[in-house]
Automatic annotation (TrEMBL):
Localization, UniProt: Cell outer membrane
A Pfam family this chain is assigned to: Porin_2
GO molecular function, one term: porin activity
Name this polypeptide is given: Porin
Gene Ontology biological process terms, A to Z: monoatomic ion transport
Domain notes: Consists of 16-stranded beta-barrel sheets, with large surface-exposed loops, that form a transmembrane pore at the center of each barrel. The pore is partially ocluded by a peptide loop that folds into the pore lumen.
Entry-linked InterPro entries: Porin_alphabac
Membrane topology per record: Multi-pass membrane protein
Function of the molecule: Forms passive diffusion pores that allow small molecular weight hydrophilic materials across the outer membrane.
Organism: Amorphus orientalis
Family membership noted in the UniProt record: Belongs to the alphaproteobacteria porin family.
């Protein structure tokens, strides 16, 4: 009893480290999904080479600390994960690793821009919104129990989706439109990171739920243009930006409603974290396109809406999330004389049912669906769908 003291000030599960005034809590999670995938409208040869089933195992280790100081609590959060999948590929990573004190947050945390308030597990795709863990330094000013404002500087490289048509001059060669294909100097047309992204948020919370509005600025900065056959013109950089709003409503009888909306110019990752990808072109959304006629970067436009609900029916919990997003860029159509288009719409639908037979053990089934409606007839419509068995144990 002299060495193990419960630390009630920090919350449930915290204990004092012997000989210190620091409280710690350890926790863990095992997440297992058997996923079955299918797709239509994609390149047949590449799809036949892909795995249609995946037994996916993710283990997580959580460590938290709490120390009371004269200026308020000093806390740390660390969440580490290890993944093994059907190809016996092992992946190690860190979701969260940050320090909080006096309103400041330093380290890796959810982006201040994000609401990430969807109701589904989202094991395969993000449902038409931004959900990004990112390195940051932020400050939150709390004006009352209900209102707060946050400003943050965040890693810009994490948000870069690439620059189309760059560094090639003149009409693009067939199949060389998207940044994933161009791979300029082993990259996607971006130069080195010069400035972090700037993000701001206003948020209100209450017994009814929460609501927030967010804004972000993102530097679009091209690499040096030394492509063979070009005239060596390197475009000046541009400033992309994004705006978003989100809410969570806790209704009677255990019903929850969530919603988000976002709009961006030159910062498409702030609108959606799971833009549609094709085997050949790769991710279809990007931040800017190089205009061969003017030598400038033209920023793309993207926007999205997402809504979801979760509710209990007896021992089961149901959740549904739907989203619609749109990506637009007129540069490629101009550069190709209308032969190609980059514009597309995307629909995301997710549904699940879960059971908790014993405390902290979830067993359920989920389905996630993406539909692509591309304005370019050569790409046309395409679909991705994943259905999975989900087992999750926290401790």
């Amino acid at each position: 009893m002299d060495y193990v003291r419960v630390c009630g000030a920090a919350g449930e599960g915290y204990y004092y480290l012997p000989g210190t005034e620091t409280c710690v809590r350890l926790a863990g999670e095992i997440d297992i999904d058997y996923i079955v995938n299918w797709s239509s409208g994609d390149a047949e040869a590449r799809w036949r080479s892909a795995d249609s089933g995946n037994l996916y195992v993710k283990s997580k280790l959580y460590a938290y600390s709490y120390t009371d100081t004269d200026f308020g609590p000093l806390t740390t959060t660390f969440e580490f994960y290890a993944v093994n999948d059907v190809d016996e590929d092992n992946e190690l990573g860190v979701d969260y690793a940050f320090i909080q004190w006096g309103g400041f947050t330093f380290g890796r945390n959810e982006s201040v821009f994000d609401a990430a308030n969807y109701t589904t597990w989202a094991e395969v795709y993000t449902p038409a919104m931004s959900d990004t863990k990112i390195n940051q330094a932020s400050y939150t000013a709390t004006f009352s129990e209900r209102f707060s404002a946050t400003v943050s500087v965040e890693d810009a490289a994490t948000r870069q989706l690439g620059i189309a048509l760059y560094p090639y001059m003149g009409l693009p060669a067939a199949g060389r439109i998207y940044p994933d294909e161009i791979a300029f100097a082993g990259d996607d047309g971006y130069g080195g990171t010069k400035w972090p992204d700037a993000v701001g948020r206003l948020k209100t919370t209450g017994a009814w739920g929460s609501a927030q509005v967010t804004a972000a600025a993102h530097q679009v900065y091209a690499a040096y243009n030394d492509a063979a056959g070009s005239d060596g013109v390197t475009p000046s950089g541009g400033v992309g930006w994004a705006l978003a709003g989100a809410f969570t409503a806790d209704l009677p009888h255990g019903v929850m409603l969530v919603g988000t909306g976002a709009y961006a110019r030159g910062a498409a990752s702030y609108v959606h974290s799971s833009w549609y990808s094709l085997p050949v072109q790769g991710t279809l959304a990007y931040d800017a396109a190089y205009d061969p006629a003017s030598g400038d970067l033209d920023l793309t436009t993207a926007y999205s809406l997402s809504f979801g609900t979760a509710f209990d029916v007896g021992p089961a919990q149901f959740a549904v999330q739907t989203g619609w997003s749109r990506f637009e860029d007129g540069t490629i159509a101009r550069a190709t004389g209308g032969a190609s288009s980059a514009d597309f719409s995307q629909i995301d639908v997710q549904a699940q049912i879960g059971f908790e037979p014993v405390k902290d053990l979830i067993i359920g089934f989920g389905t996630e669906y993406q539909y692509l409606d591309h304005d370019d007839a050569a790409i046309g419509d395409a679909q991705h769908m994943s259905t999975y068995l989900h087992v999750d144990r926290t401790f």
